[in-house]
Target: RNA helicase
Amino acid sequence: MPSLVSPRLLFLVGEIIPLKKLSRGSSSALSQGSVRFFSRVDRHKNAPLTLANLGFNTEFEKTTKNKRNKLDNVKVNYPTEAPKSREKVAASDKSRAVRVKKTLEIESAPFAATSFSELGLPSPLIERLEMEGFNVPTDVQSAAIPTILKNHDAVIQSYTGSGKTLAYVLPILSKVGPLKDKSSSGDKETGKKTDIEAVIVAPSRELAMQIVREVEKLLGPENKRVVQQLVGGANRSRQEEALKKNKPLIVVGTPGRIAEISAAGKLQTHGCRFLVLDEVDELLSFNFRQEIHRILEHVGRRSGADPQGQKNLLVKSADRQTIMVSATVPFSVVRAARSWACDPLLVQAKSVIPLESLTPGTVNLSRPTSSSNSDLNLQHQATVQSLPPALKHYYCVARLQHKVDTLRRCVYALDAQSVIAFMNHTRQLKDAVFKLEARGMKAAELHGDLGKLGRSTILKKFKSGQVRVLVTNELAARGLDVPECDLVVNLDLPTDSIHYAHRAGRTGRLGRKGTVVTICEESEVFVVKKLQKQLGVPIPVCEFTEGKLIVTDKEKHVEASR
Ligand SMILES: Nc1ncnc2c1ncn2[C@@H]1O[C@H](COP(=O)(O)OP(=O)(O)OP(=O)(O)O)[C@@H](O)[C@H]1O
Model:
């Protein structure tokens, strides 16, 4: 079997990563890898980067029924001895154990593993998973869990609803708290009991509370105090009292509140071992910049140097494992990971590669600019990775004043039971809800101006089916997990393909069916066409007549199946 890595690209089970510039470390590591090629690569100079012009006739060896899809012999070998900054400190100085990254043998991360026990999770945690009905890990969990357990910093990128939350929660619970692997040697013993060992940051209260519930479910009722929420809008002094009284090991919250309590000296995170930035591209946006910077400076310590960049082995803080997560990874995330993480790996559903091998455009989704053909192909590839494959996308044209009525007809035509409708301005949400209710359709609005109690009540009603249409904006909805959601409607156009992807990802969770309909004015159709190109998915035009969704594309006039 040929064992080579073309200097131009790395082909990992359906992934083509143009590696214009591999840094020495990873290229040597990667060049030791042997990736299965079935054809020669002969890329023409300026042709766009497509499989065809790369001379690939990709044909995978059919795996037998029982054999899993594995990457044979692809190794990303990191030096087993920790880089200088992570050398084991002398036995005498126990105050600061450091994390030693272990060689990551990709084949030990069996992509599409058939059980969680194959991934090295401790049995108490596996028992809890089984009690909660989680038996088979998703692809991104199969790739991420071994990577994080081997102490690597990671950027986890996989399409919406693919199980990214557990992909980082499970390895953390394997090392922190009552379900952890008691036998794991060499791991840092926790410092004072008050030390927080994991900080998980999310851009919205809803998402933070959703993560808390996932962690609490796994910990079980007897261990609920191990995790605590620090979300904005809740009573801060009560949160600080709980921190003192319960001494949680894991905190989950929104950037503002975590930074606020940290600045007040009420959150001891210098011994923190894990920092997770969920929906990281949103967290790096302007509105959270200051708080995220404070959190990155004060939580644990970036491995290898203190925030001032000086090597300071006397700092009494543990190396921090930094994990960044999102369905969309624009290059701003790659840059942030490079400065705040240490040798981070890009973990996708079926590939784990050194992040430093990426160049602008490879996973960049945030530059929906006019780009050359090959860049479009790359964006296409990156964007498609952020959309659940089973989704169906449509658009229909309506006058501004008829949009809500069109939404109502869309809901009836698709017989949708759990609908999330997106608008760009909070004041319009009320008007849309009023019009829907006036026509007998149970609707409610969700946005930042509502209080914490109001928001959680509305979410509960929506999840329980008491509300059929939730009208919201994308911040309140990012990362939101409502498995029953079967239709997403864009009443206003999203600002770019990243926002489209996160809105669309509220439906079609974990392989379920889902439909996305964008209702736009005639003058906005060109934007939908642009999104279609950037997202790489067909968005045919449709209309809702006689209670049916009719695709009205010229070449085909068919009724869309429900
Ligand atoms: N291994 C699994 N088996 C069954 N269900 C799972 C598994 N992992 C996650 N889930 C469920 O799948 C749903 C989606 O998971 P999650 O919210 O973590 O997806 P996500 O990738 O973070 O989505 P988003 O990008 O929108 O944040 C949740 O209801 C979760 O409980």
About this structure: Residues 383-551 form a domain with the Rossmann fold fold (CATH 3.40.50.300).
